[in-house]
């Protein structure tokens, strides 16, 4: 059912063009996955995501396990039927949410005991249990269960988490019953390059259908994240898909691709959309700013999305000001279009053997316009992103 | 620009088929207007409303006067441009909102002084000022300023309000500058049939492009509302459109049409949608009920709306439970489709000279199925509607 083909590799670089073949369609990579924490991407329906060009979304096993429950989803025919989503789905194992959202989290080698962030009810999750839950949910790609460590952490703490994550990975592999789902292993190791290399070698030796880089975009500097990718990716098999978990600012995508990443997910387009942070080719537009109250221009005059071709900044400013939910929907549609379009442009650049030039121009344009406009600043973008990433940027 | 044509009248009844011609399209009547209090119908875009078949929406002058301000809307090209709405628009005068939402409302013959419900700022509105605001907003149909009296009220209080409303109507007529907008007069008179008749005669004698029946659906029994329509409508010119303001439960539409009403508006489809109250051919479905958690059927198996053709009750129940905003959007889309479809069926029945039979079957079906299902009850519908109408059913 699942297959990954590297179709082209960038000359003199790590960027690559590929195709993920799934039972629910082929996805061109590098690809970005919108996040539907509770099922849908907030405010959007399946048709909206298809119209934007997405063929693969991410759902959170943790949230769906709590509500409506994986047995309910299974009874209703699995996630695809439940969501009426004809495309492919990846579920995360819930590890990140257990460690970041749940209360009174207690970890042993056996598994994790935690209290639901919703009602304080007690839950016990093991590697075997996460596979059972994800098999019931029925995504095309499922993830091994990993221990996520808050940033910053000591080397000993990171090493302990890596060793446990890898022991859990073995158990996840052994616990599989369904053969029609791809299972990805996760490389942890925090901001320690040696640990990353060791973790990658161990996980690769177990043999998974794909490999994820976890534990990044949790508050560290971008330079640290890039260095960790540079340490990790070369250890991963060339023919397997590589997925950078939870990082999704536009510059992360460009720089991740430059370091050989094929898949990304992040709640940034939707969550930032809800706060009125709009992504454009020239940086960000904070639509709440009073300067937009009478601005008849679209968010980004160069954008061809259904929002920019139809609505003014003034209207979106009004919707934000009066807290009208249509504003959230339109902001999210615009942001997701920006992300889909960015990935299309990245793929096109790789295909035409001009990714290095694309990457250079991408940064240059943001620097250029960012210096001119008040709320258009890559620097500001980075700062806010670093501050909020752990608490806010992931479901 | 504005023209109304009665194309057919029901044999032996008051129901009639007509066409409202506006600069922004022709609208078949009887018609229902979705309400966009702050501009859009909550969560929906222009394309959504067009796809549902609506050609005429209502916007609240009160809300748009406060935010973003009528001058801002005018500067941006008027409401149609601001909302990117190609169809027709009716604005109410703000009277209802001033009297129901605003604080410390002080009425004199000259006008009304009130505090904004948003920030307590002081505003003074006169009949002349409401026309100025509505001309700036630029709807196709604008409304005279009326004094709305809370239910119940004494006959003296009602008479006083009628006399003031009618004096204000004269001033509204005189204050007009734009000739490309239709201006509708409003008949008040509470639950007093004699007052209604007198109010209607006075307003009609002034000559408006259409006539609205105001001050109903404010907490009175449905039988009282129907009696008031029976007293008022025969006083209105046969060739002018008749608009029942703010009443919009399905039975109100059928019974209003039966009494000669051409236009309706109500926030019921969207507001009830937000509370998970879904309208169907057999009564209501309260999607929050646990019984729907594993129900694979659509809301209404007979419904052809984009929600019922795609999603299960179980999914909508989940979206409601987790407070996912997509749930509100889907519920609203379904409810508005129900209303659009009900009006289409009403028009078809009038056209095929079978409205009396349609009306009988409409009530019979709800009685029949309502008696069988727990949360499907016309009786319950009425009770809740009567209780919440004044505070909640209007923007």
The gist of it:
The structure is a homodimer of 395-residue chains. Chain A is an alpha/beta fold and 395 residues long.
Structural class of chain A comes to alpha/beta
Order the strands across the largest sheet of chain A as they lie in space: 4-5-6-10-11-12-13-14
Beta-strand residue fraction of chain A: 15-25%
Q: Give the total of beta strands of chain A.
A: 16
Largest sheet of chain A: 8 strands, parallel, barrel
Helix content of chain A: 40-55%
Kindly report the greatest chain-chain contact and the residue count on each side.
A-B, 39 and 39 residues
Counting DSSP H or I runs of 4 or more residues, the number of helices of chain A is 15
Whole-angstrom Rg of chain A: 20 Å
The span between the termini of chain A is 28 Å
Shape of chain A: globular
- How much is the average pLDDT of chain A? 93
In terms of quaternary structure, the protein is: homodimer
* Weakly predicted, low-confidence segments of chain A: 377-395
Would you write up a description of this structure?
The structure is a homodimer of 395-residue chains. Chain A is α/β, with parallel strands linked by helices. In chain A, 43% of the residues lie in helices and 19% in strands. In chain A, the strands form four sheets. Chain A has an eight-stranded parallel beta barrel, surrounded by five helices. In chain A, strands 1-2-3 form a three-stranded antiparallel sheet. Chain A has a three-stranded antiparallel sheet with strand order 7-8-9. In chain A, strand 11, helix 8 (193-206) and strand 12 (210-213) form a beta-alpha-beta unit. The interface between A and B is large, with 39 and 39 residues.
């Amino acid at each position: 059912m699942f297959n990954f083909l590297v179709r082209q590799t960038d000359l003199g670089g790590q960027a690559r063009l590929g195709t993920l073949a799934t039972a629910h369609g082929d996805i061109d990579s590098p690809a970005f996955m919108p996040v539907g924490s509770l099922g849908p991407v907030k405010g959007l329906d399946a048709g909206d995501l298809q119209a934007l060009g997405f063929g693969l979304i991410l759902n959170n096993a943790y949230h769906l396990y709590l509500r409506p429950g994986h047995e309910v989803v299974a009874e209703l025919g699995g996630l695809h039927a439940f969501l009426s989503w004809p495309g492919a789905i990846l579920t995360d194992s819930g590890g990140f949410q257990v460690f970041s959202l749940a209360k009174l989290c207690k970890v042993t080698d056996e598994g994790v005991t935690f209290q639901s962030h919703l009602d304080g009810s007690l839950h016990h999750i093991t590697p075997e249990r996460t596979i059972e839950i994800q098999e019931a949910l029925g995504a095309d790609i499922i993830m091994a269960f990993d221990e996520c460590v808050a940033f910053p952490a000591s080397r000993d703490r990171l090493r302990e988490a890596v060793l446990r994550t890898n022991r859990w990975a073995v158990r996840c592999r052994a616990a599989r019953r369904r053969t029609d789902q791809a299972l990805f292993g996760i490389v942890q190791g925090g901001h320690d390059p040696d640990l990353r290399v060791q973790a990658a070698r161990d996980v690769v030796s177990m043999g998974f259908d794909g490999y994820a880089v976890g534990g990044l975009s949790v508050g560290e500097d971008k330079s640290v994240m890039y260095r960790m990718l540079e340490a990790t990716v070369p250890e991963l098999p060339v023919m397997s898909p590589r997925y950078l978990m939870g990082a999704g600012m536009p510059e992360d995508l460009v720089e991740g691709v430059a370091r050989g990443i094929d898949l990304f997910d992040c709640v940034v387009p939707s969550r930032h959309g809800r706060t009125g942070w709009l992504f454009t080719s020239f940086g960000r537009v904070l639509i709440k700013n009073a300067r937009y109250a009478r601005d008849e221009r679209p968010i980004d005059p160069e954008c061809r999305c259904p929002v920019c071709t139809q609505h003014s900044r003034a209207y979106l400013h009004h919707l934000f000001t009066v807290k009208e939910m249509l504003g959230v929907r339109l902001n999210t549609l615009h942001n997701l279009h920006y992300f889909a379009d960015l990935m299309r442009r990245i793929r096109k650049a790789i295909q035409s053997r001009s990714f290095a030039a694309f990457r250079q121009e991408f940064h240059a344009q943001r620097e250029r316009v960012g210096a001119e406009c008040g709320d258009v600043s890559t620097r500001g973008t980075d700062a806010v992103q670093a501050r909020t990433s752990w608490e806010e940027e992931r479901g």
